[in-house]
Amino acid sequence: MASSAPLSPQLEPTIDIDKLSYEIFSILESRFLFGYGSDTDSKLFLDRHSHPPPTAALKPSKNPSGKVRILSIDSGGATDGILSARSLALLEDSLRRTSHNPDARIADYFDVAAGSGAGGVLAALLFTRGDNGRPLLSAAEALRFLVENRRKPARGGVFRRIFGRPRAEEERLYKKLFSENTLKDTLKTVLVPCYDLASNAPFLFSRADALETDGYDFRIREVCFATSADPTAVGAIEMTSVDGRTRIVAVDGGVTMSNPTAAAITHVLNNKQEFPFCRGVEDLLVVSLGNGESGSVRFARRSSTPSAGEFVRIAGDGISDMVDQAVSMSFGHCRASNYVRIQGNGFRGKKFGNAKYSNSGKAKKVLDFADEMLAQKNMESILFQGKRISEKTNAEKLEWFAGELVKEQERRKSSVFPTVVLKQATPRTSSVTVTSSSG
User: Which entry of 87, 116, 294, 320 is annotated as an active-site residue?
Assistant: First the structure.
């Protein structure tokens, strides 16, 4: 490259500072959030005119195999999972109208489902295979299940339970729902976190791991109990894998991973067996469902110092929000087309938390609160521009996203490249086969 004279102080620099910052951020995101290789490192300070920006994840996808579709559901939040469940019911209804298929289910249009706490229970309800080979429940049925079984949280409690029943009764309810089904019996890839006190580390229940090793296959009913276990009410849950080789002592998944979106994306990008053509976030379609903030606005306006329990809830909101921000930044300019976040902002949890659900009128009140949040225009992260109010309401985002999911479903029918190659297990055995998935 030809040499040039030194810049005088009066001349503006030839380096585009915004673009350089953009490239630096992309490399850091790629290396440390999603674990890409280091081949882009050497390009960082090279001539911007002779090298394209090392930001493949920020360009529109040209992958002939299409996009992997990810559903992520937060832990309970202010609404104990009701906002996410209502969002899923709305999304499923939109999918049916858009596809003209009255029997369409959420599991038909997603390749991966990650859920924490109440979100993990929702993922299990929607993605576990029923007796007829279809999903166990529709989104509307899963919403009704959560509404009917939700209870008022104990005063001063740090963690929320989904159910207001004694532990033994709660276990019987899960067993009735899921019987002896295990992670191998889920229709698509499912990821559900908890915190393992035995190893003092997060533990991620994974269908892919269960198919690889019997020691990581757990009964669905125990997975749900583990990820939603309130240590202040039911204590830790001791459980073993189906073959008895793996033992964990689990508490609430929201303790370690209140927003599992980044974990789901990382799983896909590093699982080349099941997602062989997925190269980066431009090859993903992601919807992340929040459950309302846990009254942090109300806490901030009080004159007294928040209690320890309130601080924990605020911290959970903060962690979830930071995951959303990091994921949003990693999508860059593809954010508007590849990533959607649904969340209720500025919500006062006290009024919702004090509602009782012993009759249909109170149940309707719960759903009305969720609908109010779906009508909100929430905050969204913008690359190097902080945050701004979204142009669309949460409900409008879901309607748009349903259209994108249906487009991807239709594209796969004529594609010669498989987007997903799901591993399948012969029921109740450890043998594994591989099949291509077009839906």
Answer: 116
